[in-house]
Amino acid sequence: MMRLLQLELIKLGSNRASRVLIVSYFLLLTSIALVAAIKFDLGPVKFHLAEMGIFNFPYIWHFNTFITAFFKLFLAIVIVSMMANEYSNKTIKQNLIDGLSKREFVLSKFLTVVVFALVSTLFVFVVSLLLGLVYSDFNEPAIIFSDLEFLLAFFVKLMGFFSFCLFLGMLVKRSAFALGFLIIWQIVEAMARGMMRWKLFDADTTEAVMAFFPLQAMFNLIKEPFSRLEAVQTVADQVGQKIELDYAVQWYELLIVLGWTAIFVYLSHALLKKRDL
């Protein structure tokens, strides 16, 4: 496995565009720290985002994994480009001629996906831990290391999304078209939700069905964290509203995304086996 992974990392390292995108992605993950510097001091109005509690433990694990997940498109571009380059440069054919089986080829790509997701998760963990140690009002170990399931959800979410991108890159063979298909699929899911809500089900049933769609399943892993903020809860109480949401990571939602991950990897292998290269 290490040989397969090393082969992919060498390919990525030799591609300048991929290097730029990967570096940009991790710089963006780091930029979450800049949020702490946002301050407004306009006379009686004083606003410091870090003082609102977004970097408090254990809330920071929820907030940072939700926000940084939106940056995953940078690595999605790398993954679909990685597949497009295999076809355009004919390296996929050369790899197979050199003795790499089609199964090993897909495995090497999936290992790259797993490494991207794992390194991203570790990176977010370190950045969040440092921010929390600086800004959090709670520094007891039991509090610091609670709610770490959001990091697990983040890892599974990225692995599922990158596996989807891997399949699209294998299916379409052109990075621009693969990314276009990704956007189209997002629209398809939105239209499916609208049609079900309009013609078939009530809101709760519609959301229950949508939870099995791939992109929606990935999004569901980490719920929005903003309504969990104490300031938001206080405002809601003052206007007579009660916010009662379940923010926890659900085991069955993890299984759905893991199931889609397995499906995408299987379809990528099946597609490659069927194609005449």
Describe, in short, the structure shown.
This protein has 277 residues and is an all-alpha fold. It has one domain (2-274).
pLDDT below 50 for ≥5 consecutive residues: which ranges?
A: none
**What's the β-strand tally?**
2
| Element-by-element helix/strand order | HHEEHHHHHHHHHHH
Measured between the Cα atoms of the first and last residue, the distance is 24 Å
**What's the mean pLDDT score?**
85
Which strand order spans the largest sheet, edge to edge or round the barrel?
A: 1-2
Radius of gyration: 21 Å
- Morphology call: globular
Structural class: mainly alpha
| Assembly form of the protein | single chain
- In terms of DSSP E residues, the strand content is under 5%
Biggest sheet statistics: 2 strands, antiparallel
What is the tally of helical segments?
A: 13
The helix content, as a percent range, equals over 70%
Number of domains: 1
Describe the 3D structure.
With 277 residues, this protein is mainly α. The protein has one domain (2-274). It contains 13 helices and two strands. It has a two-stranded antiparallel sheet. Strand 1 and strand 2 form a beta hairpin. It starts with a helix and ends with a helix. 29% of the residues are buried.
